[in-house]
């Protein structure tokens, strides 16, 4: 491999735009590493394992919530957004983790959860005590019910986790919870709410945090004009965001939400360098990029890419649209294949087209049965394709090990509230949150000294960091090589599509290097160029099915 591209962007601490083409590693703290042996991952566990990330070659880590929480929704029910859950450590532990990350050259992002709090938050407990009409209730969305005695919910709005989005309290009023009942929604028309989150952004920025991931970024602004608008059966759930993709939805993706983020940008820009932010907004592409404007958050997750099937034509279309819309907003594109909310892509990419993922999980991953080897092959090819694209790549913990979804968790161990709230119709997201394996042996394969909060399958021994550390061609080695090479190859944020055979994707990046992915069922010849890296070895000099290669500009070819 050769040193390349003197024009590569500066991703050192002095560059305020380091995030535009960074690789950011998502840590789900309760499942990363357990230092104290209580079965839950913790902050000291993260600190002890940071060398894994620096050796891997990522630029930053993003921590999912580590705040005090009753874990009604895996930590996203936040009781105090400016503290650490005692089970996970202390603020001193957090400060030590940030210091060690920075020593290793890693940036740190944390989750901000602004749509709702925990029902254990001091504000919500005060609201329950204070009663209807109080200033404490004005921080949340409390309403009288419908019907002769207020016995009916104020509207037909449905929770993301199933059932009504309203819960009645003993005095007869109802409060809104778009997620679990333990997650009451805040009212962002309330200036006290806005001021408190400005304080939270400053609190973590002052502790050295480099950026923020904004949970449910599209959910803050709501049309609470009386009478509240019913949606009807046809406009509940995610499909309504497509039908009402003009800012008219009563509680998602309203135009007023952007005023909030313009206000936040003033806070973030007051730091040197400015703190970055990325929106989690499950909205259509043309609406999502609004959150990524320079005077708002700057980036937004690209879920169209995550949801695209293993199809050359579909991937080319979503990549083209994503780059065009990001460029129009002045943002860099984002790419993600897995996270804490979706089936891991080593399994998802081999589910037959049209498979209901919820039904597959309910079957314990048996209907249909998946080809694990083919899944890993596709996952590796998809990773090299993603890392070759201009913009930021977000990597979910364990994907560098090739971990598949743990689809056969028994019902009695499930923690995700989706399982209970849907009446056992949807199994939930626990299968992608199973704690990581670090060693071949031990009660939790090195995750901690004892058992883990979710059981790990025996197969995790062979996926462990220890088992793959010295294995030639292992998935961790592929990530390390790709990330090291990517850093040398990076140029501007453009690509040019090249002509290719059906089922094949090829594009050229600035500097002349190229990426080619074979999504067809047959091997294909490689175009001219120096072979820099392949996701799996060549087949008689050809690129096999489900394989990606990176090519340099010189005609000489390296070995596999």
Which key phrases capture this entry?
alpha/beta; TIM Barrel; Oligo-1,6-glucosidase, domain 2; Immunoglobulin-like; 17 helices; 27% helix; disordered C terminus; Glycoside hydrolase family 13 protein; O16G_dom_2
Radius of gyration of CA atoms, rounded to a whole number: 24 Å
- Name the shape in a single word: globular
> Which class best fits the helix and strand makeup?
alpha/beta
Number of strands: 18
Question: Which strand order spans the largest sheet, edge to edge or round the barrel?
Answer: 9-8-7-3-2-1-11-10
Q: Please state the second-level CATH architecture of the largest domain.
A: Alpha-Beta Barrel
Percent helix, as a range, is 25-40%
Intertermini distance: 12 Å
Counting DSSP H or I runs of 4 or more residues, the number of helices is 17
Q: How would you state the average pLDDT, rounded? A: 93
Q: In CATH, what is the class of the largest domain?
A: Alpha Beta
Q: Looking at this structure, what is the CATH superfamily of the largest domain?
A: Glycosidases
- Portion in strands: 5-15%
Unreliable parts: 1-12, 555-560
Total separate domains = 3
């Amino acid at each position: 491999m050769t040193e390349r591209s003197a024009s590569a962007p500066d991703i050192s601490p002095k560059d305020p735009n380091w995030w535009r083409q960074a690789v950011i590693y998502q840590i789900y703290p309760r499942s990363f590493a357990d230092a104290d042996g209580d079965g839950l991952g913790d902050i000291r566990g993260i600190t002890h394992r940071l060398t894994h990330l620096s050796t891997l070659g990522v630029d930053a880590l993003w921590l999912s919530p580590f705040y005090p929480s009753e874990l009604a929704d895996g930590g996203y029910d936040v009781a105090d957004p400016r503290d650490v859950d005692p089970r996970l450590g202390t603020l001193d532990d957090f400060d030590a983790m940030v210091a060690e990350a920075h020593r290793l050259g890693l940036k740190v992002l944390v989750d901000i959860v602004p749509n709702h709090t925990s029902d254990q938050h001091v504000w919500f407990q005060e609201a329950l005590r204070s009663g209807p009409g109080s200033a404490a209730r004005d921080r949340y969305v409390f309403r009288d019910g419908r019907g002769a005695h207020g016995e009916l919910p104020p509207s037909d709005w449905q929770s993301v986790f199933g059932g009504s989005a309203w819960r009645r309290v003993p005095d007869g009023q109802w409060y809104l919870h778009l997620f679990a009942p333990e997650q009451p929604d805040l009212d962002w028309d309330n200036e006290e709410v806005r001021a408190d989150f400005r304080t939270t952004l400053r609190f973590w920025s002052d502790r050295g945090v480099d950026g923020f991931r904004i949970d449910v970024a599209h959910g803050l602004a709501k049309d609470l004009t009386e009478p509240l608008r019913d949606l009807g059966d046809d406009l509940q759930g995610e499909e309504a965001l497509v039908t009402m993709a003009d800012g008219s939805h009563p509680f998602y993706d309203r135009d007023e939400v952007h005023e909030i983020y313009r206000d936040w940008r003033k806070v973030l820009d007051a730091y040197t360098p400015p703190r970055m932010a990325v929106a989690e907004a499950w909205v259509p592409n043309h609406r999502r990029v609004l959150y990524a404007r320079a005077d708002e958050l700057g980036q937004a997750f690209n879920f169209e890419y995550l949801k695209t099937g293993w199809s050359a034509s579909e991937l080319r279309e979503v990549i083209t649209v994503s780059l065009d819309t990001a460029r129009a907003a002045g943002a860099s594109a984002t790419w993600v294949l897995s996270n804490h909310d979706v089936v891991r892509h080593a399994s998802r990419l081999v589910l037959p087209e049209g498979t209901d993922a919820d039904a597959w999980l309910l079957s314990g991953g048996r209907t249909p049965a998946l080809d694990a080897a083919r899944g890993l092959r596709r996952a590796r090819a998809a990773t090299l394709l993603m890392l070759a694209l201009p913009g930021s790549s977000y990597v979910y913990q364990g994907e560098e090990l090739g971990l598949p979804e743990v689809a056969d968790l028994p019902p009695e161990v499930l923690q995700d509230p989706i399982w209970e709230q849907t009446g056992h119709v949807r199994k939930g997201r626990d299968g992608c949150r199973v704690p990581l394996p670090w060693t071949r042996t031990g009660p939790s394969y090195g995750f901690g000294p004892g058992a883990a909060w979710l059981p790990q399958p025996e197969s995790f021994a062979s996926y462990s960091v220890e088992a793959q550390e010295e294995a030639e061609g292992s998935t961790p080695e592929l990530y390390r090589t790709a990330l090291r090479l990517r850093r040398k190859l990076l140029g501007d944020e453009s690509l040019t599509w090249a002509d290719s055979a059906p089922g094949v994707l090829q594009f050229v990046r600035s500097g002349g290097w190229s990426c080619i992915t074979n999504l067809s069922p047959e091997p294909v010849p490689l175009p001219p160029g120096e072979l820099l890296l392949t996701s799996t070895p060549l087949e008689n000099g050809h690129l096999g099915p489900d394989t990606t290669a990176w090519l340099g500009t010189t005609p000489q070819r390296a070995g596999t």
